[in-house]
Design a protein that fits this description.
Structural class: mainly beta
Strand order of the largest sheet: 1-4-5-6-7-9-8
CATH architecture: 3-Layer(aba) Sandwich
Strand content: 35-45%
Number of helices: 2
Order of helices and strands: EEEEEEHEHEE
Number of domains: 1
Radius of gyration: 16 Å
Oligomer: single chain
CATH topology: Aminopeptidase
Length: 177
């Protein structure tokens, strides 16, 4: 499988947010804090589908801003995933969204996008990358950990006002350069 990465431009802005965001959840992370370190174990849960909805933004502003970027992953010339990057308030590059179409998950597309994000953030002189995910997104957590991200924090109440996700825990992952 040939994976190529390309940056969004004016001709491809219409491809943003056209990728699968839903996933099947069958495990959760259970968090532990010991000696100021966050660790976890993984427990199985009854399978359910997590439906994620992204509010559309004006992505044209990413085109001429060197501090923002959207990259697409193509397989055999067809777009199958994306990653959005922007500066965060704490001076880190923030991965706002990583999405890969379901048939291409677990086949290196997410890894290719993470590698691209790391290269881009370093080239832009960010001190590192950060992102937020949830304790029920175990495959993503494992991917981030494989690339050196560490858990820097969590929020038990971030999703309390959303009935469909009120039991989720927000996890904040960091990769320091």
């Amino acid at each position: 499988m040939d994976i190529s990465i390309r940056q969004m431009d004016a001709g491809s802005v219409n491809q943003v947010d056209t990728f699968d965001l839903n996933s099947i959840v069958n495990s959760h992370l259970v968090l532990y804090v010991e000696d100021n370190q966050i660790t976890y174990s993984i427990i199985p849960v009854p399978s359910y589908e997590k439906i994620l909805i992204i509010e559309p933004e004006e992505y044209a502003s990413f085109i001429n801003d060197p501090q923002k970027a959207i990259f697409f992953a193509d397989v055999d010339g067809k777009p199958v995933g994306q990653i959005k990057l922007l500066p965060w308030w704490n001076k880190f590059a923030y991965i706002e969204e990583l999405a890969v179409n379901t048939p291409f998950r677990g086949k290196g597309v997410g890894s290719a996008l993470i590698k691209c994000a790391i290269e881009w953030a370093r080239a832009q002189n960010f001190p590192g990358l950060m992102l937020e995910t949830q304790n029920n997104n175990v495959p993503a957590c494992k991917l981030y950990e494989r690339y050196g991200f560490t858990l820097g924090g969590f929020d038990l109440h971030a999703y309390k006002n959303f009935p469909e996700s009120k039991s989720e825990i927000a996890l904040y992952w960091y990769l320091m350069f």
